[in-house]
Write a structure and sequence with these properties.
MetI-like fold, MetI-like_sf, transport, flat, 13 helices, mainly alpha, membrane, MetI-like, transmembrane, single chain, 272 residues
Amino acid sequence: MSTRPSASRKPAAAPQPAAAPQPTAAPQPTTAPRLSLRRFATPLAVAGALAVLFLWLNTLTLDSIEQRTLNTSYLLDRTQEHLILTVVSSALVALLAIPAGIAAYRVRSKAVRAFVIALGNIGQATPAVGVVILLAIVWQTGFYTALISLVAYCFLPVLRNTLTGLEQVDHATREAARGMGMTPRQVLWRIELPLASPVILAGLRTALVFSVGVATIATFINAGGLGDMIVNGLKLQRYPVIVVGAVLVAAIAVLIDWAAGLVEDLVRPRGL
């Protein structure tokens, strides 16, 4: 009779582990809102700055030239041209500079690396205005000339970051991958490039911001962009036009840097 109560009490302790999942569910709703607010702080700040700018414009009495320049259709056309130049040139830089960096890394020759980096240094050391004007004299004016000059100017950051990122991969990690039977190509695609991706993406982010600023000089060779507003405002001494053009260029640069940062966080491998 004394053993039966003890046997009935032991199963009563079984429901206790059901309380274990409670602490794991609590942190999830607290972290997500903070991340979302931080991520959207930059575009909200840019939107606020643009709202203040256009409120300021409404307080001014614009003449006929300023009204023609600061109308919605003109602003949208110039902004579209600027964005096309920036995005296309950055895409070409990624398609050219990353494979060039990988090839220079795989060759493992100091002379080849020095030659490739020297080519990139020439493109960035030369003043952007000089590159644009020289290409316009030798070839032609227009969109494609501005595109080539932007690619030449933004080539070096991506090339250098690709080489740096691949060189920083731990040698022991490569040897462990080879010990598992991976070929050199598999080591590159599965180990080295994923580990080097944060550095490579940082170079692409820098190239994007560079291209936004350099695209303003495309106006000198009739390639359009927001540089038209800045140059025309300087020529005609219309300071509201200059301010609007400069603020729009800065806003695009900040927003592109923010978007590139989001992509960098999403693409980055876990644990890096």
